[in-house]
Amino acid sequence: MGKPVTVVWDRSFLGYDLGGDHPLNPVRLDLTVRLATGLGVLDGVDVVSPVTATDDEIELVHRPGYLSAVQAAPTAGWDVGHGLGTADNPVFDHMHEASALVVGGSLTAARAIASGEADRAVNIAGGLHHAMPDHAAGFCVYNDCSVAIAWLLRNGFDRIAYVDVDVHHGDGVQTAFWDDPRVLTVSLHQNPMSLWPGTGWAREVGGEGAEGTAVNVALPPGTKDGAWLRAFHATVPALINAFQPQVIVTQCGADTHKEDPLADLHLSVDGHRAIYLALRELVTRHDAKWLALGGGGYELLRVVPRSWTHLLATVLDRDLDPDLPLPADWVAHATRIAPNWPLPASMTDGCDPVHQPWGGDGDDAVDKAIRDTRRAVFPLHGLDPDDPRD
Asked: To which pathway does this protein belong (predicted)?
Protein backbone atom coordinates (compact mmCIF):
# COMPACT_ATOMS: atom_id res chain seq x y z
CA MET A 1 0.00 0.00 0.00
CA GLY A 2 1.56 3.28 -1.11
CA LYS A 3 -0.88 6.15 -0.55
CA PRO A 4 -2.33 7.10 2.83
CA VAL A 5 -5.69 5.54 3.66
CA THR A 6 -8.60 7.96 3.99
CA VAL A 7 -10.52 7.31 7.21
CA VAL A 8 -13.79 9.24 7.30
CA TRP A 9 -15.06 10.01 10.78
CA ASP A 10 -16.75 12.70 12.81
CA ARG A 11 -18.84 12.48 15.96
CA SER A 12 -21.68 14.05 14.00
CA PHE A 13 -22.27 10.56 12.57
CA LEU A 14 -23.79 9.74 15.97
CA GLY A 15 -26.80 11.84 14.94
CA TYR A 16 -28.07 8.88 12.91
CA ASP A 17 -29.96 7.69 15.97
CA LEU A 18 -33.21 5.79 15.61
CA GLY A 19 -33.90 6.34 19.29
CA GLY A 20 -35.00 4.46 22.36
CA ASP A 21 -33.97 0.84 22.47
CA HIS A 22 -33.62 0.52 18.70
CA PRO A 23 -30.95 -2.09 17.86
CA LEU A 24 -28.97 0.29 15.63
CA ASN A 25 -27.46 2.31 18.45
CA PRO A 26 -24.73 4.76 17.37
CA VAL A 27 -22.78 4.01 20.54
CA ARG A 28 -21.18 1.17 18.57
CA LEU A 29 -19.46 3.73 16.33
CA ASP A 30 -18.18 5.78 19.24
CA LEU A 31 -16.87 2.67 21.00
CA THR A 32 -15.14 1.49 17.84
CA VAL A 33 -13.27 4.75 17.29
CA ARG A 34 -12.36 4.92 20.99
CA LEU A 35 -10.99 1.38 20.85
CA ALA A 36 -9.08 1.90 17.61
CA THR A 37 -7.61 5.09 19.06
CA GLY A 38 -6.70 3.41 22.34
CA LEU A 39 -4.86 0.63 20.51
CA GLY A 40 -2.93 3.05 18.32
CA VAL A 41 -4.60 2.00 15.08
CA LEU A 42 -5.33 5.61 14.16
CA ASP A 43 -1.98 7.06 15.28
CA GLY A 44 -0.78 9.52 12.66
CA VAL A 45 -3.85 8.99 10.48
CA ASP A 46 -5.39 12.14 9.02
CA VAL A 47 -9.04 11.47 9.82
CA VAL A 48 -11.29 13.28 7.33
CA SER A 49 -14.65 14.79 8.24
CA PRO A 50 -17.63 13.88 6.03
CA VAL A 51 -19.25 16.37 3.68
CA THR A 52 -23.05 16.11 3.68
CA ALA A 53 -24.42 14.67 0.43
CA THR A 54 -26.51 16.98 -1.70
CA ASP A 55 -30.01 16.09 -2.86
CA ASP A 56 -28.68 15.62 -6.39
CA GLU A 57 -26.10 13.13 -5.15
CA ILE A 58 -28.64 11.16 -3.14
CA GLU A 59 -30.92 11.16 -6.20
CA LEU A 60 -28.30 9.17 -8.11
CA VAL A 61 -30.16 6.26 -6.48
CA HIS A 62 -33.23 7.61 -4.65
CA ARG A 63 -36.34 9.18 -6.15
CA PRO A 64 -37.03 12.88 -5.53
CA GLY A 65 -40.43 12.15 -4.00
CA TYR A 66 -38.82 9.89 -1.45
CA LEU A 67 -36.33 12.59 -0.44
CA SER A 68 -39.23 14.98 0.02
CA ALA A 69 -40.96 12.45 2.27
CA VAL A 70 -37.84 11.97 4.40
CA GLN A 71 -37.34 15.73 4.71
CA ALA A 72 -40.96 16.28 5.72
CA ALA A 73 -41.36 13.26 8.00
CA PRO A 74 -40.23 14.75 11.36
CA THR A 75 -42.87 17.51 11.17
CA ALA A 76 -45.50 15.91 8.95
CA GLY A 77 -47.70 14.63 11.76
CA TRP A 78 -49.20 11.89 9.61
CA ASP A 79 -48.26 8.64 7.94
CA VAL A 80 -45.75 9.63 5.28
CA GLY A 81 -45.40 6.11 3.89
CA HIS A 82 -42.22 5.07 2.09
CA GLY A 83 -41.36 2.67 4.92
CA LEU A 84 -40.97 5.55 7.35
CA GLY A 85 -42.51 5.56 10.82
CA THR A 86 -42.23 1.80 11.27
CA ALA A 87 -40.60 -0.11 14.13
CA ASP A 88 -37.55 -0.72 11.93
CA ASN A 89 -37.38 2.82 10.59
CA PRO A 90 -38.93 5.22 13.08
CA VAL A 91 -39.01 8.89 12.23
CA PHE A 92 -36.48 10.97 14.19
CA ASP A 93 -35.51 14.63 14.34
CA HIS A 94 -33.20 15.79 11.54
CA MET A 95 -33.59 12.41 9.85
CA HIS A 96 -32.75 13.70 6.39
CA GLU A 97 -29.72 15.62 7.59
CA ALA A 98 -28.32 12.69 9.58
CA SER A 99 -28.93 10.26 6.73
CA ALA A 100 -27.44 12.60 4.14
CA LEU A 101 -24.33 12.89 6.31
CA VAL A 102 -23.86 9.11 6.29
CA VAL A 103 -24.17 9.14 2.50
CA GLY A 104 -21.77 12.05 2.42
CA GLY A 105 -19.28 10.07 4.46
CA SER A 106 -19.21 7.30 1.88
CA LEU A 107 -19.03 9.86 -0.93
CA THR A 108 -16.12 11.59 0.84
CA ALA A 109 -14.35 8.24 0.87
CA ALA A 110 -15.22 7.62 -2.79
CA ARG A 111 -13.94 11.06 -3.79
CA ALA A 112 -10.60 10.36 -2.14
CA ILE A 113 -10.28 7.25 -4.29
CA ALA A 114 -11.46 8.89 -7.52
CA SER A 115 -9.14 11.86 -7.07
CA GLY A 116 -6.11 9.63 -6.61
CA GLU A 117 -5.58 10.92 -3.09
CA ALA A 118 -6.08 7.41 -1.66
CA ASP A 119 -6.20 3.84 -2.91
CA ARG A 120 -8.21 2.79 0.14
CA ALA A 121 -10.86 4.59 2.15
CA VAL A 122 -13.15 3.54 5.00
CA ASN A 123 -16.40 4.83 6.50
CA ILE A 124 -17.55 2.64 9.38
CA ALA A 125 -20.74 4.71 9.69
CA GLY A 126 -21.75 3.61 6.19
CA GLY A 127 -23.05 0.30 4.92
CA LEU A 128 -26.80 1.08 5.03
CA HIS A 129 -27.47 -1.47 2.31
CA HIS A 130 -31.22 -2.10 2.60
CA ALA A 131 -32.67 1.28 1.58
CA MET A 132 -34.53 1.14 -1.73
CA PRO A 133 -35.01 3.92 -4.32
CA ASP A 134 -38.38 4.96 -2.89
CA HIS A 135 -38.51 3.57 0.63
CA ALA A 136 -36.61 2.95 3.84
CA ALA A 137 -35.96 -0.58 4.98
CA GLY A 138 -34.00 -2.48 7.59
CA PHE A 139 -32.82 0.53 9.65
CA CYS A 140 -31.61 2.23 6.45
CA VAL A 141 -33.03 5.56 5.24
CA TYR A 142 -30.65 6.24 2.35
CA ASN A 143 -28.41 3.66 0.70
CA ASP A 144 -24.92 5.13 0.98
CA CYS A 145 -23.37 2.01 -0.59
CA SER A 146 -25.38 2.40 -3.78
CA VAL A 147 -24.94 6.16 -3.97
CA ALA A 148 -21.16 5.84 -3.62
CA ILE A 149 -21.05 3.18 -6.36
CA ALA A 150 -23.29 5.24 -8.66
CA TRP A 151 -21.06 8.27 -8.08
CA LEU A 152 -17.91 6.26 -8.86
CA LEU A 153 -19.50 5.07 -12.11
CA ARG A 154 -19.88 8.73 -13.11
CA ASN A 155 -16.35 9.62 -12.11
CA GLY A 156 -13.90 7.45 -13.96
CA PHE A 157 -14.76 3.84 -13.10
CA ASP A 158 -16.72 1.27 -15.08
CA ARG A 159 -16.04 -2.03 -13.26
CA ILE A 160 -16.96 -2.09 -9.59
CA ALA A 161 -17.36 -5.15 -7.37
CA TYR A 162 -19.50 -4.91 -4.25
CA VAL A 163 -18.89 -7.64 -1.65
CA ASP A 164 -21.36 -7.77 1.24
CA VAL A 165 -20.51 -9.94 4.27
CA ASP A 166 -23.39 -8.74 6.48
CA VAL A 167 -25.65 -11.48 7.87
CA HIS A 168 -28.57 -9.96 5.92
CA HIS A 169 -28.83 -9.98 2.15
CA GLY A 170 -27.53 -6.82 0.48
CA ASP A 171 -30.86 -6.38 -1.25
CA GLY A 172 -30.84 -2.62 -1.76
CA VAL A 173 -27.53 -2.63 -3.60
CA GLN A 174 -28.50 -5.64 -5.69
CA THR A 175 -31.72 -3.86 -6.67
CA ALA A 176 -29.91 -0.63 -7.57
CA PHE A 177 -27.59 -2.40 -10.03
CA TRP A 178 -29.70 -5.37 -11.10
CA ASP A 179 -29.53 -4.39 -14.77
CA ASP A 180 -26.05 -2.86 -14.77
CA PRO A 181 -23.26 -5.10 -16.08
CA ARG A 182 -20.66 -2.67 -14.75
CA VAL A 183 -21.35 -3.65 -11.14
CA LEU A 184 -20.84 -7.11 -9.65
CA THR A 185 -22.84 -7.46 -6.40
CA VAL A 186 -21.85 -10.38 -4.17
CA SER A 187 -23.66 -11.13 -0.93
CA LEU A 188 -22.94 -13.89 1.58
CA HIS A 189 -25.75 -14.02 4.12
CA GLN A 190 -28.00 -16.21 6.25
CA ASN A 191 -30.46 -18.28 4.26
CA PRO A 192 -33.49 -16.17 3.26
CA MET A 193 -35.90 -18.78 4.59
CA SER A 194 -34.64 -18.05 8.09
CA LEU A 195 -33.93 -14.32 8.07
CA TRP A 196 -35.27 -11.00 6.82
CA PRO A 197 -35.45 -9.67 4.06
CA GLY A 198 -36.21 -13.07 2.54
CA THR A 199 -34.22 -12.45 -0.64
CA GLY A 200 -30.79 -13.45 -1.81
CA TRP A 201 -31.26 -16.86 -3.40
CA ALA A 202 -28.62 -18.34 -5.66
CA ARG A 203 -31.01 -18.09 -8.60
CA GLU A 204 -31.00 -14.26 -8.35
CA VAL A 205 -28.26 -13.62 -10.91
CA GLY A 206 -29.00 -10.20 -12.42
CA GLY A 207 -31.28 -8.67 -15.04
CA GLU A 208 -31.28 -8.90 -18.80
CA GLY A 209 -27.92 -7.91 -20.16
CA ALA A 210 -26.33 -8.21 -16.70
CA GLU A 211 -26.73 -11.92 -16.07
CA GLY A 212 -24.12 -13.19 -13.63
CA THR A 213 -23.48 -9.83 -11.98
CA ALA A 214 -25.69 -10.60 -8.99
CA VAL A 215 -24.20 -13.35 -6.82
CA ASN A 216 -25.80 -14.75 -3.68
CA VAL A 217 -24.49 -17.32 -1.22
CA ALA A 218 -27.28 -18.30 1.19
CA LEU A 219 -25.73 -19.92 4.28
CA PRO A 220 -27.63 -22.08 6.76
CA PRO A 221 -28.23 -20.90 10.33
CA GLY A 222 -25.43 -21.96 12.64
CA THR A 223 -22.66 -21.56 10.06
CA LYS A 224 -19.33 -21.10 11.84
CA ASP A 225 -16.04 -19.46 10.89
CA GLY A 226 -14.51 -22.33 8.93
CA ALA A 227 -17.60 -23.11 6.89
CA TRP A 228 -18.26 -19.41 6.16
CA LEU A 229 -14.69 -18.97 4.96
CA ARG A 230 -14.92 -22.12 2.84
CA ALA A 231 -17.98 -20.66 1.11
CA PHE A 232 -16.24 -17.33 0.58
CA HIS A 233 -13.10 -18.83 -0.91
CA ALA A 234 -15.11 -21.23 -3.09
CA THR A 235 -17.02 -18.41 -4.75
CA VAL A 236 -15.70 -14.88 -4.37
CA PRO A 237 -12.05 -14.99 -5.53
CA ALA A 238 -12.84 -16.75 -8.82
CA LEU A 239 -15.62 -14.28 -9.62
CA ILE A 240 -13.49 -11.27 -8.73
CA ASN A 241 -10.74 -12.66 -10.94
CA ALA A 242 -13.18 -13.09 -13.83
CA PHE A 243 -14.73 -9.64 -13.37
CA GLN A 244 -11.45 -7.72 -12.84
CA PRO A 245 -12.89 -4.74 -10.93
CA GLN A 246 -11.14 -1.40 -10.63
CA VAL A 247 -12.75 -0.77 -7.25
CA ILE A 248 -13.90 -3.25 -4.61
CA VAL A 249 -16.56 -1.87 -2.25
CA THR A 250 -17.08 -3.98 0.86
CA GLN A 251 -19.99 -3.86 3.29
CA CYS A 252 -18.56 -5.30 6.50
CA GLY A 253 -21.52 -5.93 8.78
CA ALA A 254 -20.51 -7.57 12.07
CA ASP A 255 -23.90 -9.21 12.69
CA THR A 256 -22.68 -12.64 11.58
CA HIS A 257 -21.21 -13.00 15.06
CA LYS A 258 -22.54 -15.79 17.27
CA GLU A 259 -23.58 -13.27 19.94
CA ASP A 260 -25.54 -11.00 17.63
CA PRO A 261 -29.13 -10.81 18.88
CA LEU A 262 -30.84 -10.39 15.49
CA ALA A 263 -29.50 -13.35 13.48
CA ASP A 264 -28.17 -16.86 13.72
CA LEU A 265 -24.78 -17.28 12.11
CA HIS A 266 -22.05 -18.33 14.54
CA LEU A 267 -18.89 -16.49 13.55
CA SER A 268 -16.31 -15.11 15.97
CA VAL A 269 -14.35 -11.87 16.01
CA ASP A 270 -11.44 -14.00 14.85
CA GLY A 271 -13.54 -15.09 11.88
CA HIS A 272 -14.34 -11.45 11.11
CA ARG A 273 -10.63 -10.63 11.17
CA ALA A 274 -9.99 -13.49 8.74
CA ILE A 275 -12.71 -12.12 6.43
CA TYR A 276 -11.13 -8.66 6.40
CA LEU A 277 -7.72 -10.18 5.66
CA ALA A 278 -9.25 -12.17 2.79
CA LEU A 279 -10.86 -9.02 1.38
CA ARG A 280 -7.55 -7.19 1.58
CA GLU A 281 -5.81 -10.03 -0.20
CA LEU A 282 -8.32 -9.73 -3.07
CA VAL A 283 -7.78 -5.98 -3.26
CA THR A 284 -4.01 -6.42 -3.31
CA ARG A 285 -3.98 -9.28 -5.80
CA HIS A 286 -6.07 -7.34 -8.32
CA ASP A 287 -4.43 -3.97 -7.69
CA ALA A 288 -7.91 -2.58 -7.01
CA LYS A 289 -9.03 0.43 -5.01
CA TRP A 290 -10.83 -0.41 -1.76
CA LEU A 291 -13.84 1.38 -0.29
CA ALA A 292 -14.70 -0.28 3.04
CA LEU A 293 -18.00 0.42 4.80
CA GLY A 294 -19.57 -0.68 8.07
CA GLY A 295 -23.05 -2.18 8.19
CA GLY A 296 -25.06 -4.23 10.66
CA GLY A 297 -23.93 -5.38 14.08
CA TYR A 298 -26.07 -5.28 17.19
CA GLU A 299 -23.90 -6.66 20.00
CA LEU A 300 -22.83 -3.13 20.71
CA LEU A 301 -20.09 -3.53 23.31
CA ARG A 302 -18.57 -7.00 23.03
CA VAL A 303 -18.52 -7.47 19.27
CA VAL A 304 -18.80 -4.44 16.98
CA PRO A 305 -15.99 -2.33 18.47
CA ARG A 306 -13.49 -5.19 18.31
CA SER A 307 -14.59 -6.37 14.88
CA TRP A 308 -14.43 -2.94 13.26
CA THR A 309 -11.19 -2.05 15.01
CA HIS A 310 -9.77 -5.12 13.25
CA LEU A 311 -11.36 -3.80 10.04
CA LEU A 312 -9.69 -0.41 10.40
CA ALA A 313 -6.38 -2.05 11.24
CA THR A 314 -6.64 -4.32 8.21
CA VAL A 315 -7.44 -1.51 5.78
CA LEU A 316 -4.55 0.50 7.22
CA ASP A 317 -2.11 -2.47 7.10
CA ARG A 318 -1.72 -2.19 10.86
CA ASP A 319 -2.83 -5.71 11.75
CA LEU A 320 -3.44 -6.29 15.45
CA ASP A 321 -2.38 -9.30 17.46
CA PRO A 322 -5.67 -10.98 18.40
CA ASP A 323 -4.32 -11.57 21.92
CA LEU A 324 -3.84 -7.84 22.46
CA PRO A 325 -5.57 -6.79 25.71
CA LEU A 326 -8.29 -4.16 25.58
CA PRO A 327 -7.11 -0.79 26.94
CA ALA A 328 -8.09 -0.17 30.56
CA ASP A 329 -9.58 3.24 29.81
CA TRP A 330 -11.75 1.78 27.05
CA VAL A 331 -12.98 -0.96 29.39
CA ALA A 332 -13.74 1.65 32.05
CA HIS A 333 -15.72 3.76 29.57
CA ALA A 334 -17.69 0.77 28.25
CA THR A 335 -18.41 -0.35 31.82
CA ARG A 336 -19.91 3.05 32.62
CA ILE A 337 -22.25 2.62 29.64
CA ALA A 338 -23.35 -0.89 30.63
CA PRO A 339 -22.20 -1.70 34.19
CA ASN A 340 -23.63 -5.22 34.23
CA TRP A 341 -22.47 -6.28 30.79
CA PRO A 342 -19.42 -8.60 30.86
CA LEU A 343 -16.68 -7.41 28.53
CA PRO A 344 -14.03 -9.44 26.73
CA ALA A 345 -10.42 -9.12 27.87
CA SER A 346 -8.72 -8.99 24.49
CA MET A 347 -9.17 -8.63 20.74
CA THR A 348 -9.86 -12.34 20.26
CA ASP A 349 -12.67 -14.77 20.99
CA GLY A 350 -10.06 -17.51 21.25
CA CYS A 351 -11.17 -19.16 18.01
CA ASP A 352 -9.03 -20.49 15.17
CA PRO A 353 -10.80 -19.54 11.90
CA VAL A 354 -9.05 -22.18 9.82
CA HIS A 355 -11.08 -23.57 6.92
CA GLN A 356 -10.94 -26.57 4.64
CA PRO A 357 -10.97 -25.66 0.95
CA TRP A 358 -14.06 -26.64 -0.98
CA GLY A 359 -13.55 -29.92 -2.80
CA GLY A 360 -16.71 -30.04 -4.87
CA ASP A 361 -18.12 -33.16 -3.25
CA GLY A 362 -19.25 -32.15 0.25
CA ASP A 363 -22.81 -32.94 1.22
CA ASP A 364 -23.53 -30.63 4.16
CA ALA A 365 -25.76 -27.56 3.90
CA VAL A 366 -22.88 -25.13 3.36
CA ASP A 367 -21.45 -27.21 0.53
CA LYS A 368 -24.90 -27.33 -1.04
CA ALA A 369 -25.10 -23.53 -0.85
CA ILE A 370 -21.70 -23.30 -2.52
CA ARG A 371 -22.79 -25.62 -5.33
CA ASP A 372 -26.06 -23.74 -5.83
CA THR A 373 -24.25 -20.44 -6.25
CA ARG A 374 -21.46 -21.77 -8.44
CA ARG A 375 -23.90 -23.55 -10.75
CA ALA A 376 -26.08 -20.45 -11.00
CA VAL A 377 -23.37 -17.92 -11.88
CA PHE A 378 -20.03 -19.53 -12.72
CA PRO A 379 -20.99 -20.54 -16.28
CA LEU A 380 -22.04 -16.94 -16.95
CA HIS A 381 -18.42 -15.95 -16.32
CA GLY A 382 -16.89 -18.80 -18.32
CA LEU A 383 -16.03 -20.75 -15.16
CA ASP A 384 -16.60 -24.45 -14.45
CA PRO A 385 -18.97 -24.69 -11.48
CA ASP A 386 -17.91 -28.23 -10.60
CA ASP A 387 -14.15 -27.79 -10.85
CA PRO A 388 -12.64 -26.76 -7.49
CA ARG A 389 -9.74 -25.18 -9.36
CA ASP A 390 -12.10 -22.48 -10.70
From this structure: Ketone degradation; acetoin degradation
Domains annotated on the chain, with CATH: 6-381 (3.40.800.20)
Would you give the DSSP letter of residue 225?
Answer: H
- Cβ contact 276:252 at 8 Å: yes
Residue 113 is predicted with a pLDDT of 98
Residue 169: active-site member? no
**266-286 per-position pLDDT tens digit:** 999 999 999 999 999 999 999
pLDDT at 176: 98
Catalytic residue among 130, 168, 266, 355: 130
Tell me the residue ranges of DSSP E strands in 70-135: 120-123
Q: Is the peptide bond before 197 cis (omega within 30 degrees of 0)?
A: yes
Separation of alpha carbons 91 and 252, rounded Å: 26
Residue type, 110: A
pTM equals 0.98
